[in-house]
Design brief:
Radius of gyration: 18 Å
Order of helices and strands: EHEHEHEHEHEEEEEHEE
CATH superfamily of one domain: Glutaconate Coenzyme A-transferase
Strand content: 25-35%
Helix content: 10-25%
Number of strands: 12
CATH architecture of one domain: 3-Layer(aba) Sandwich
Number of helices: 6
Largest sheet: 9 strands, mixed
Length: 230
């Protein structure tokens, strides 16, 4: 089956207001930037977005935030976005902060069909408020529920026409587990190759999890430039 779409616009055409999205990436590394731009131009609103962070003020998910398209963020790190801070403090944006490892595992659990799991992360902090706790082998844990999405938007290095995906380096932090947890997974890639070209031993996300593939062009941004003082 050829799952290749001709453009990011076509790939997100059926994403409607109020959808829940998982968006891969770590900082500005491995973000599906063309799909995000297509969503901005489409103008869908009231989105619930599950992502490690919310981009920066002028790139990535920050563009949707600027455009008032995001209703709720489920995130781990949000410190690089002044507009995020402003909307949160003014009550315009609903935010659920999740420890980073817990966020990754909640996404992985959603894709694996595991409804919930116990973790020590967050015990004794506001993260634990309202959640079931249990003592196991003398240690306290809190129950965290799995996350799923209507659509998962991920970025991979290479795909074949069936949707088998290969990632590179830091882009493996959130993209692989999010690819499994969306009812519809849309993969934006740097290169699409014919079926049979990819070595099965090096495929990170099998095609069974991927419904759409689109090739994009990418801007390699640096989130925060630091230099060593001479």
């Amino acid at each position: 089956m050829n799952k290749v779409y001709q453009s990011a616009v076509d790939a997100v055409a059926d994403i409607q207001d109020g959808a829940t999205l998982m968006v891969g990436g770590f900082g500005l590394c491995g973000i599906p930037e063309n799909l995000i731009l297509a969503l901005r131009d489409k103008g869908v609103k009231d989105l619930t977005v599950i992502s490690n962070n919310c981009g920066v003020d002028d790139w990535g998910l920050g563009l949707l935030l600027q455009n008032r398209q995001i209703k709720k963020m489920i995130s781990s790190y949000v410190g690089e976005n002044k507009e995020f801070e402003r909307q949160f403090l003014s009550g315009e944006l609903e935010v659920e902060l999740v420890p980073q490892g817990t966020l990754a595992e909640r996404c992985r659990a959603g894709g694996a069909g595991i409804p919930a799991f116990f973790t020590p992360a967050g015990v004794g902090t506001p993260v634990a408020e309202g959640k079931e706790t249990r003592v196991i082998d003398g240690k306290e844990y809190i129950l965290e529920k799995a996350l799923k999405a209507d659509f998962s938007l991920v970025k991979a290095f290479r795909a074949d026409e069936m949707g088998n995906l290969i990632y590179r380096k830091t882009t493996q932090n959130f993209n692989p587990m999010m690819a499994t947890a969306g009812a519809i997974t849309i993969a934006e890639v740097e290169e699409i190759v014919p079926v049979g070209t990819l070595d099965p031993d090096f495929i990170h996300t099998p095609s069974v999890y991927v419904q759409r593939v689109v090739q994009g062009s990418f801007e390699k941004r640096i989130e925060r430039r630091t230099v060593r003082q001479g």
